Every structure is written in structure tokens, then in C-alpha cells.
UniProtKB/TrEMBL annotation:
NCBIfam families: rsfS_iojap_ybeB (TIGR00090). Belongs to the Iojap/RsfS family. GO terms for cellular component: cytoplasm. The gene is rsfS. It is found in: Cytoplasm. This is Ribosomal silencing factor RsfS. Interacts with ribosomal protein uL14 (rplN). It comes from Aeromicrobium camelliae. Functions as a ribosomal silencing factor. Interacts with ribosomal protein uL14 (rplN), blocking formation of intersubunit bridge B8. Prevents association of the 30S and 50S ribosomal subunits and the formation of functional ribosomes, thus repressing translation. Keywords: Cytoplasm, Repressor, Translation regulation.
Length: 120
């Protein structure tokens, strides 16, 4: 099983929105073979809570424009790890320190990455 076309569209849109707000280390994994609850994870980092809020807002705005609404949001108050669950995809916006500590890339390294088409 692979991620649906819709999941790929949303993952790429979320990544582009995060990139517009200077998020770093943007990567996406096709987790559809490992999880039944979602098709893709999008991971990105922000340097501070205001930047992370800007990334969150940009992702939500971009995906709303594509007709997607989050079914769950977590971590907004703490400002160190924001999770946006869109069912088809889950977006993780992490402070750089949390990103290094939790190392989600290591946990999902056996899953295929999704080509995001972002400028290098």
C-alpha cells in the first residue's frame, strides 16, 4: 500500500507552506504500510515559538485552501511541538531541540520518503 494521491498533495502543500515560513529540515514519510490511521508524516523544525506558530498558521491556511481541515491539534500552548492531524497526513512542527531529542526520522527511517519538490 502507498500513500494516496490526496495524501501526497496535502503533504507537498504542507511542506511548501512550512518552507515559506523558513522551517528547516522539512521531510515527509509515506507511513501507509506501517500505520492504518494516516498515510504520511510531514516533519519540520522551527527555531522559536513565534516561528513555529507562523509555520502552523501557514500550513493550516494552505491546507484549508485545499479543502482540508485538521481533525486534531496538539501542543499549541507549549510551543515546542505542534501536531496537526488531517487524517490523510499528520504534520509535526518541532522546535529544533525537540527534533534532535525525539529523532522521528530515525523511528520512521524504514519508510519511504516523499519527494516534496522544494527548492534546495
Amino acid at each position: 500500500m502507498t500513500a494516496t494521491d490526496r495524501a501526497l498533495e496535502l503533504a507537498r502543500a504542507a511542506a511548501a507552506a512550512a518552507d515559506d515560513k523558513q522551517a528547516t529540515d522539512i521531510v515527509a514519510f509515506d507511513v501507509s504500510d506501517q500505520l492504518v490511521i494516516t498515510d504520511a508524516f510531514v516533519l519540520c523544525s522551527g527555531a522559536n515559538p513565534p516561528q513555529m506558530s507562523a509555520i502552523r498558521d501557514a500550513v493550516e491556511e494552505k491546507l484549508h485552501g485545499l479543502g482540508a481541515k485538521p481533525i486534531r491539534r496538539e501542543g499549541e500552548r507549549e510551543g515546542r511541538w505542534v501536531l496537526l492531524d488531517y487524517a490523510d497526513i499528520v504534520v509535526h512542527i518541532q522546535h529544533v531541540e525537540e527534533r534532535a531529542f525525539y529523532a522521528l526520522e530515525r523511528l520512521w527511517s524504514d519508510c519511504p520518503t516523499i519527494e516534496l519538490g522544494l527548492p534546495q
